[in-house]
Specification:
9 strands; alpha+beta; globular; 3 helices; about 120 residues; two-stranded antiparallel sheet
Length: about 120
């Protein structure tokens, strides 16, 4: 089993399968947030597929901020090795205290700038 797959994540995604929030923009409900350093994955929806969960959301803080799909197994396997700089190894984690809410209610400046690109 994937280290990031939890009963809580499965529960929060069960009524939000892939494509269930198409066209909702800033009103789409963010179901979970995963973090690694300054990178954030704002998960909107997902489907369990065998031993993995395929999710759709917004990633910010990497090379480019974008909408996209991500595999929970892939997120689980990411490891940033900063031991040579004295910081140890870091892995993606889920914000466990996050309560689902519309994207427009999340106080993250990079997310707000990303969403503003799609306003008319």
């Amino acid at each position: 089993m994937c280290r990031l797959q939890t009963p809580q994540l499965e529960e929060t995604l069960k009524d939000f399968p892939l494509y269930s929030q198409d066209g909702k923009g800033k009103d789409a409900i963010c179901r979970a947030i995963f973090v690694l350093g300054s990178a954030r994955w704002f998960i909107l929806e997902g489907n369990r597929e065998g031993d993995d969960t395929i999710m759709f959301g917004i990633v910010i803080g990497l090379i480019e901020d974008e909408y996209g799909y991500v595999s929970l197994n892939e997120l689980s396997d990411i490891e940033l090795d900063l031991t040579a700089k004295g910081y140890g190894k870091h892995r993606v984690t889920q914000l466990t205290n996050f309560q689902p809410r519309p994207l427009k209610e999340i106080n993250n400046i990079r997310l707000k700038h990303f969403l503003a690109r799609f306003e008319k």
